[in-house]
Protein backbone atom coordinates (compact mmCIF):
# COMPACT_ATOMS: atom_id res chain seq x y z
CA UNK A 1 0.00 0.00 0.00
CA UNK A 2 1.18 3.49 -0.83
CA UNK A 3 -0.26 6.69 0.62
CA UNK A 4 -1.52 9.12 -2.00
CA UNK A 5 -3.29 11.71 0.12
CA UNK A 6 -4.40 12.25 3.72
CA UNK A 7 -6.96 14.80 4.90
CA UNK A 8 -7.96 15.43 8.49
CA UNK A 9 -10.68 17.61 9.98
CA UNK A 10 -11.31 18.35 13.65
CA UNK A 11 -7.75 17.98 14.95
CA UNK A 12 -7.38 20.34 17.94
CA UNK A 13 -3.93 21.75 17.12
CA UNK A 14 -4.68 22.46 13.47
CA UNK A 15 -6.28 25.46 11.83
CA UNK A 16 -8.90 24.14 9.46
CA UNK A 17 -8.46 21.09 7.27
CA UNK A 18 -5.12 19.34 6.97
CA UNK A 19 -4.47 18.15 3.40
CA UNK A 20 -1.29 16.24 2.50
CA UNK A 21 -0.59 14.95 -1.01
CA UNK A 22 2.24 12.44 -1.50
CA UNK A 23 2.08 11.84 -5.25
CA UNK A 24 3.84 14.10 -7.76
CA UNK A 25 1.36 16.89 -8.55
CA UNK A 26 3.54 18.98 -10.82
CA UNK A 27 4.27 18.23 -14.44
CA UNK A 28 6.65 15.29 -14.70
CA UNK A 29 9.63 15.92 -16.95
CA UNK A 30 11.61 12.95 -18.24
CA UNK A 31 14.66 13.82 -16.11
CA UNK A 32 12.50 14.00 -12.96
CA UNK A 33 11.57 10.32 -13.24
CA UNK A 34 15.00 9.48 -11.80
CA UNK A 35 13.96 10.90 -8.40
CA UNK A 36 10.37 9.61 -8.33
CA UNK A 37 8.81 6.18 -7.80
CA UNK A 38 6.44 5.02 -10.58
CA UNK A 39 3.05 3.62 -9.50
CA UNK A 40 1.15 3.23 -12.75
CA UNK A 41 0.60 5.13 -15.99
CA UNK A 42 1.79 8.72 -15.35
CA UNK A 43 1.35 8.59 -11.57
CA UNK A 44 4.53 8.87 -9.51
CA UNK A 45 5.29 9.19 -5.80
CA UNK A 46 7.70 11.52 -4.04
CA UNK A 47 9.89 9.08 -2.11
CA UNK A 48 11.33 11.78 0.17
CA UNK A 49 8.76 14.13 1.71
CA UNK A 50 10.20 16.96 3.80
CA UNK A 51 8.36 19.20 6.27
CA UNK A 52 10.16 22.42 7.13
CA UNK A 53 9.25 25.31 9.40
CA UNK A 54 10.51 27.41 12.29
CA UNK A 55 10.42 26.15 15.88
CA UNK A 56 6.91 25.37 17.18
CA UNK A 57 5.43 25.54 13.68
CA UNK A 58 3.83 22.09 13.98
CA UNK A 59 6.27 19.80 12.15
CA UNK A 60 6.17 17.03 14.77
CA UNK A 61 2.38 17.24 14.98
CA UNK A 62 2.08 16.64 11.24
CA UNK A 63 4.36 13.60 11.46
CA UNK A 64 2.18 12.26 14.27
CA UNK A 65 -0.91 12.47 12.04
CA UNK A 66 0.86 10.60 9.23
CA UNK A 67 2.01 7.86 11.61
CA UNK A 68 -1.48 7.57 13.08
CA UNK A 69 -2.96 7.01 9.62
CA UNK A 70 -0.25 4.53 8.59
CA UNK A 71 -0.66 2.47 11.74
CA UNK A 72 -4.45 2.55 11.50
CA UNK A 73 -4.56 1.20 7.92
CA UNK A 74 -1.98 -1.37 9.03
CA UNK A 75 -4.53 -2.94 11.46
CA UNK A 76 -3.16 -1.33 14.64
CA UNK A 77 -5.84 -0.47 17.27
CA UNK A 78 -6.00 3.31 17.66
CA UNK A 79 -5.62 3.05 21.43
CA UNK A 80 -2.29 1.24 20.94
CA UNK A 81 -0.82 3.78 18.49
CA UNK A 82 1.95 5.91 20.06
CA UNK A 83 0.90 9.11 18.28
CA UNK A 84 -2.84 8.89 19.13
CA UNK A 85 -2.47 11.91 21.46
CA UNK A 86 -2.64 14.13 18.35
CA UNK A 87 -6.40 13.43 18.37
CA UNK A 88 -6.75 15.24 21.70
CA UNK A 89 -10.14 14.89 23.36
CA UNK A 90 -12.19 15.97 20.36
CA UNK A 91 -15.66 14.52 19.92
CA UNK A 92 -15.21 14.06 16.17
CA UNK A 93 -12.13 13.80 13.98
CA UNK A 94 -12.64 12.87 10.34
CA UNK A 95 -9.79 11.21 8.45
CA UNK A 96 -9.80 10.52 4.72
CA UNK A 97 -7.00 8.24 3.60
CA UNK A 98 -6.38 7.74 -0.11
CA UNK A 99 -4.00 4.93 -1.00
CA UNK A 100 -2.86 2.70 -3.84
CA UNK A 101 -3.27 -1.05 -3.43
CA UNK A 102 -0.62 -2.85 -5.42
CA UNK A 103 -2.15 -6.26 -4.82
CA UNK A 104 -5.59 -5.25 -6.13
CA UNK A 105 -4.42 -2.54 -8.60
CA UNK A 106 -6.93 -0.16 -7.05
CA UNK A 107 -7.11 3.36 -5.70
CA UNK A 108 -8.94 3.39 -2.38
CA UNK A 109 -10.50 6.04 -0.21
CA UNK A 110 -11.10 5.24 3.46
CA UNK A 111 -13.18 7.67 5.52
CA UNK A 112 -12.87 7.18 9.27
CA UNK A 113 -14.65 9.18 11.96
CA UNK A 114 -13.10 8.90 15.42
CA UNK A 115 -14.51 10.04 18.76
CA UNK A 116 -12.92 10.27 22.20
CA UNK A 117 -14.10 9.33 25.66
CA UNK A 118 -12.48 10.32 28.92
CA UNK A 119 -12.65 8.48 32.23
CA UNK A 120 -10.93 9.10 35.54
CA UNK A 121 -9.40 5.63 35.64
CA UNK A 122 -8.33 5.05 32.01
CA UNK A 123 -7.88 8.60 30.73
CA UNK A 124 -8.74 9.30 27.07
CA UNK A 125 -9.73 6.39 24.84
CA UNK A 126 -10.78 6.44 21.19
CA UNK A 127 -13.32 4.58 19.11
CA UNK A 128 -14.40 4.59 15.47
CA UNK A 129 -18.02 5.68 15.12
CA UNK A 130 -18.34 5.28 11.36
CA UNK A 131 -16.20 4.15 8.47
CA UNK A 132 -16.62 3.61 4.73
CA UNK A 133 -14.38 2.60 1.84
CA UNK A 134 -14.58 3.35 -1.89
CA UNK A 135 -12.42 1.81 -4.62
CA UNK A 136 -11.71 2.20 -8.30
CA UNK A 137 -9.54 0.14 -10.61
CA UNK A 138 -6.52 1.90 -12.08
CA UNK A 139 -7.80 1.04 -15.58
CA UNK A 140 -10.65 3.50 -14.96
CA UNK A 141 -8.27 6.41 -14.29
CA UNK A 142 -7.69 8.76 -17.20
CA UNK A 143 -6.01 11.71 -15.44
CA UNK A 144 -4.21 12.41 -12.16
CA UNK A 145 -6.72 15.16 -11.42
CA UNK A 146 -9.62 12.68 -11.47
CA UNK A 147 -7.69 9.90 -9.73
CA UNK A 148 -9.01 10.67 -6.23
CA UNK A 149 -12.52 11.67 -7.28
CA UNK A 150 -15.00 9.10 -5.96
CA UNK A 151 -18.13 11.15 -6.60
CA UNK A 152 -21.17 9.08 -7.58
CA UNK A 153 -19.68 5.80 -6.36
CA UNK A 154 -21.17 3.55 -3.71
CA UNK A 155 -18.93 2.35 -0.86
CA UNK A 156 -17.65 -1.20 -1.19
CA UNK A 157 -17.33 -1.54 2.61
CA UNK A 158 -19.31 0.14 5.41
CA UNK A 159 -18.79 -0.26 9.12
CA UNK A 160 -22.14 -1.45 10.45
CA UNK A 161 -21.36 -1.63 14.14
CA UNK A 162 -22.50 -5.26 14.18
CA UNK A 163 -19.11 -6.77 13.32
CA UNK A 164 -18.86 -9.45 15.97
CA UNK A 165 -15.08 -9.74 16.19
CA UNK A 166 -14.07 -6.15 15.32
CA UNK A 167 -12.91 -3.95 18.18
CA UNK A 168 -14.35 -0.42 18.11
CA UNK A 169 -10.86 1.11 17.73
CA UNK A 170 -9.74 -1.12 14.82
CA UNK A 171 -10.34 -0.05 11.23
CA UNK A 172 -12.32 -2.16 8.76
CA UNK A 173 -9.00 -2.23 6.88
CA UNK A 174 -8.23 -5.37 8.88
CA UNK A 175 -10.75 -7.32 6.76
CA UNK A 176 -9.41 -5.93 3.51
CA UNK A 177 -5.77 -6.51 4.45
CA UNK A 178 -6.55 -10.12 5.35
CA UNK A 179 -8.13 -10.60 1.93
CA UNK A 180 -5.44 -8.83 -0.12
CA UNK A 181 -2.59 -9.95 2.18
CA UNK A 182 -1.21 -6.41 2.30
CA UNK A 183 0.98 -5.03 5.06
CA UNK A 184 2.98 -1.81 5.43
CA UNK A 185 6.45 -1.81 6.99
CA UNK A 186 6.49 1.28 9.25
CA UNK A 187 9.52 2.63 11.11
CA UNK A 188 8.73 5.36 13.64
CA UNK A 189 11.85 7.21 14.80
CA UNK A 190 10.10 10.05 16.65
CA UNK A 191 11.27 8.77 20.03
CA UNK A 192 14.90 8.97 18.86
CA UNK A 193 14.74 12.70 18.11
CA UNK A 194 16.57 13.62 21.31
CA UNK A 195 17.49 10.18 22.67
CA UNK A 196 20.02 7.86 21.06
CA UNK A 197 20.24 4.32 22.42
CA UNK A 198 20.71 1.42 20.05
CA UNK A 199 17.53 -0.68 20.14
CA UNK A 200 19.13 -3.60 18.32
CA UNK A 201 20.37 -6.93 19.53
CA UNK A 202 21.74 -7.88 16.12
CA UNK A 203 24.86 -6.65 14.39
CA UNK A 204 24.99 -3.30 12.59
CA UNK A 205 25.95 -3.64 8.89
CA UNK A 206 29.69 -3.00 8.53
CA UNK A 207 29.06 -0.57 5.65
CA UNK A 208 26.93 1.61 7.94
CA UNK A 209 29.60 1.62 10.64
CA UNK A 210 32.41 2.56 8.23
CA UNK A 211 30.34 5.34 6.67
CA UNK A 212 29.64 6.92 10.06
CA UNK A 213 32.94 6.31 11.87
CA UNK A 214 35.87 4.74 9.98
CA UNK A 215 37.87 4.40 13.25
CA UNK A 216 35.55 1.57 14.36
CA UNK A 217 36.85 -1.85 13.30
CA UNK A 218 33.84 -3.87 14.48
CA UNK A 219 30.69 -3.74 16.56
CA UNK A 220 28.61 -6.82 17.23
CA UNK A 221 26.18 -8.20 19.78
CA UNK A 222 26.38 -11.46 21.72
CA UNK A 223 24.85 -13.14 24.76
CA UNK A 224 26.50 -14.39 27.92
CA UNK A 225 24.43 -16.11 30.60
CA UNK A 226 21.30 -14.89 28.77
CA UNK A 227 22.47 -11.29 29.14
CA UNK A 228 23.46 -9.00 26.24
CA UNK A 229 27.14 -8.57 25.56
CA UNK A 230 28.39 -5.85 23.19
CA UNK A 231 31.78 -6.16 21.48
CA UNK A 232 33.24 -2.82 20.37
CA UNK A 233 36.66 -2.57 18.76
CA UNK A 234 38.43 0.49 17.40
CA UNK A 235 41.25 0.07 14.88
CA UNK A 236 44.58 -0.55 16.61
CA UNK A 237 42.91 -0.82 20.04
CA UNK A 238 41.86 -3.69 22.27
CA UNK A 239 38.24 -4.86 22.19
CA UNK A 240 35.84 -3.24 24.66
CA UNK A 241 33.07 -5.37 26.25
CA UNK A 242 29.84 -3.66 27.33
CA UNK A 243 26.69 -4.99 29.00
CA UNK A 244 24.27 -2.19 28.18
CA UNK A 245 23.63 -0.31 24.88
CA UNK A 246 23.52 2.93 26.89
CA UNK A 247 27.24 2.49 27.62
CA UNK A 248 27.99 2.87 23.91
CA UNK A 249 27.32 6.59 24.34
CA UNK A 250 30.54 6.80 26.38
CA UNK A 251 32.56 5.68 23.35
CA UNK A 252 30.57 6.77 20.29
CA UNK A 253 29.28 10.20 19.31
CA UNK A 254 25.54 10.90 19.34
CA UNK A 255 25.68 11.27 15.56
CA UNK A 256 27.27 7.83 15.13
CA UNK A 257 24.66 6.16 17.36
CA UNK A 258 21.76 7.94 15.67
CA UNK A 259 23.25 7.14 12.28
CA UNK A 260 23.48 3.45 13.11
CA UNK A 261 19.81 3.43 14.05
CA UNK A 262 18.64 5.51 11.10
CA UNK A 263 20.67 3.97 8.28
CA UNK A 264 20.17 0.37 9.46
CA UNK A 265 16.40 0.84 9.53
CA UNK A 266 16.46 2.87 6.31
CA UNK A 267 18.07 -0.12 4.56
CA UNK A 268 15.17 -2.29 5.71
CA UNK A 269 12.61 0.25 4.45
CA UNK A 270 14.33 0.53 1.07
CA UNK A 271 14.17 -3.26 0.82
CA UNK A 272 10.55 -3.60 1.94
CA UNK A 273 9.13 -0.51 0.22
CA UNK A 274 7.74 0.74 3.54
CA UNK A 275 7.83 4.05 5.41
CA UNK A 276 10.39 5.60 7.75
CA UNK A 277 9.43 8.75 9.67
CA UNK A 278 12.21 10.90 11.18
CA UNK A 279 11.70 14.06 13.20
CA UNK A 280 14.37 16.78 13.03
CA UNK A 281 16.48 14.65 10.72
CA UNK A 282 19.52 16.92 11.10
CA UNK A 283 19.84 16.38 14.89
CA UNK A 284 23.41 15.12 15.64
CA UNK A 285 24.16 14.82 11.89
CA UNK A 286 26.33 16.92 9.64
CA UNK A 287 24.87 18.11 6.36
CA UNK A 288 26.50 15.41 4.24
CA UNK A 289 25.01 12.57 6.30
CA UNK A 290 21.53 14.08 6.07
CA UNK A 291 21.75 14.66 2.33
CA UNK A 292 23.03 11.10 1.83
CA UNK A 293 19.93 9.72 3.53
CA UNK A 294 17.61 11.87 1.40
CA UNK A 295 19.48 11.02 -1.82
CA UNK A 296 19.18 7.27 -1.15
CA UNK A 297 15.39 7.55 -1.17
CA UNK A 298 15.39 9.87 -4.20
CA UNK A 299 17.52 7.47 -6.25
CA UNK A 300 15.08 5.41 -8.34
CA UNK A 301 17.84 2.93 -9.26
CA UNK A 302 18.55 2.27 -5.58
CA UNK A 303 14.99 2.67 -4.27
CA UNK A 304 13.36 0.13 -6.57
CA UNK A 305 10.62 -0.88 -4.14
CA UNK A 306 9.33 2.59 -3.37
CA UNK A 307 10.52 3.02 0.20
CA UNK A 308 9.36 6.39 1.52
CA UNK A 309 11.21 8.79 3.80
CA UNK A 310 9.05 11.33 5.65
CA UNK A 311 11.01 13.82 7.73
CA UNK A 312 11.00 17.21 9.37
CA UNK A 313 13.92 19.63 9.34
CA UNK A 314 15.16 23.12 10.15
CA UNK A 315 17.79 22.92 7.37
CA UNK A 316 16.84 25.24 4.47
CA UNK A 317 19.84 23.89 2.53
CA UNK A 318 18.16 20.47 2.38
CA UNK A 319 15.49 21.94 0.16
CA UNK A 320 18.07 22.43 -2.59
CA UNK A 321 18.41 18.64 -2.86
CA UNK A 322 14.96 18.66 -4.48
CA UNK A 323 14.64 19.18 -8.21
CA UNK A 324 10.88 19.56 -7.73
CA UNK A 325 8.72 21.52 -5.30
CA UNK A 326 5.90 19.02 -4.62
CA UNK A 327 7.89 16.88 -2.15
CA UNK A 328 8.33 19.85 0.22
CA UNK A 329 5.79 21.09 2.77
CA UNK A 330 5.92 24.39 4.69
CA UNK A 331 4.48 24.30 8.22
CA UNK A 332 3.30 27.43 10.03
CA UNK A 333 1.53 28.05 13.32
CA UNK A 334 -0.62 31.17 13.47
CA UNK A 335 -3.34 30.43 15.98
CA UNK A 336 -3.32 26.87 14.66
CA UNK A 337 -1.07 24.71 12.48
CA UNK A 338 -1.28 24.90 8.70
CA UNK A 339 0.65 22.95 6.08
CA UNK A 340 1.19 24.14 2.51
CA UNK A 341 2.84 22.28 -0.33
CA UNK A 342 5.68 24.31 -1.80
CA UNK A 343 4.39 23.68 -5.34
CA UNK A 344 1.36 25.82 -4.47
CA UNK A 345 3.66 28.77 -3.70
CA UNK A 346 6.59 28.34 -6.09
CA UNK A 347 5.38 27.35 -9.52
CA UNK A 348 8.89 27.11 -10.97
CA UNK A 349 11.32 24.37 -9.95
CA UNK A 350 14.44 26.33 -10.93
CA UNK A 351 14.20 28.91 -8.13
CA UNK A 352 16.72 28.18 -5.35
CA UNK A 353 14.50 26.90 -2.57
CA UNK A 354 16.75 27.69 0.39
CA UNK A 355 16.98 31.35 -0.69
CA UNK A 356 13.20 31.61 -1.03
CA UNK A 357 12.80 30.07 2.44
CA UNK A 358 15.40 32.16 4.26
CA UNK A 359 14.45 35.42 2.58
CA UNK A 360 10.96 35.32 4.08
CA UNK A 361 9.42 35.20 0.60
CA UNK A 362 7.38 32.15 1.67
CA UNK A 363 6.05 34.03 4.74
CA UNK A 364 6.12 32.61 8.24
CA UNK A 365 9.42 30.79 7.66
CA UNK A 366 11.64 33.14 9.66
CA UNK A 367 11.24 34.57 13.19
CA UNK A 368 9.38 37.89 13.10
CA UNK A 369 11.35 41.13 13.24
CA UNK A 370 9.31 42.26 16.25
CA UNK A 371 10.26 39.11 18.20
CA UNK A 372 13.91 39.64 17.25
CA UNK A 373 13.86 43.25 18.50
CA UNK A 374 12.17 42.31 21.78
CA UNK A 375 14.78 39.62 22.42
CA UNK A 376 17.61 42.03 21.59
CA UNK A 377 16.22 44.70 23.92
CA UNK A 378 15.86 42.24 26.80
CA UNK A 379 19.50 41.15 26.42
CA UNK A 380 20.64 44.79 26.29
CA UNK A 381 18.64 45.49 29.45
CA UNK A 382 20.36 42.66 31.36
CA UNK A 383 23.78 44.04 30.38
CA UNK A 384 23.00 47.61 31.42
The string of secondary-structure elements, in order, is EEEEEHEEEEHEHEEEHEHEEEHH
Number of strands: 17
Spatial gap, N to C terminus: 62 Å
Low-confidence stretches: none
Largest sheet: 6 strands, antiparallel
Average residue pLDDT: 89
| Percent of sequence in beta strands | 25-35%
- Secondary structure category: alpha+beta
Rg measurement, Å: 23 Å
Morphology: globular
| DSSP helix fraction | 10-25%
Structural notes for this entry:
The chain has 384 residues and is of the alpha+beta class. The chain is 21% helix and 29% strand. It is built from seven helices and 17 strands. It has helices at residues 59-73, 173-180, 206-212, 254-272, 287-298, 353-358, 369-383, and strands spanning 2-9, 18-21, 36-40, 43-46, 48-52, 93-101, 106-119, 123-137, 157-158, 186-188, 216-224, 227-234, 240-242, 275-278, 308-313, 328-333, 337-341. Strands 2-1-6-7-8-9 form a six-stranded antiparallel β-sheet, with helices on one face. β16 (328-333) and β17 (337-341) form a beta hairpin. It starts with a strand and ends with a helix. The mean pLDDT is 89.
